[in-house]
Amino acid sequence: MALYRYPARFIEQRPPGAYLVHFPDFPEARTFGRSLDHAREMAADCLREAIRSRGIDGEDLPPEREIVEGEEVVQVDVP
User: Is the peptide bond before 15 cis (omega within 30 degrees of 0)?
Assistant: First the structure.
């Protein structure tokens, strides 16, 4: 299993407490959560699937990078 870490942006939506999540390094990866905890769970699933999809399609993964202000690291294991 490989461990991957990529930054995500969690953007609070209406109703308050709901979050849109996107990964700047994976433009195809977006998800949503009803709470911040739920958004974090959904973000991990979304990132894992984006990494798997790129592997299936033979696409390179972006290099891991440092987070910038407004981002949070999402870490996943991918078999």
Answer: yes
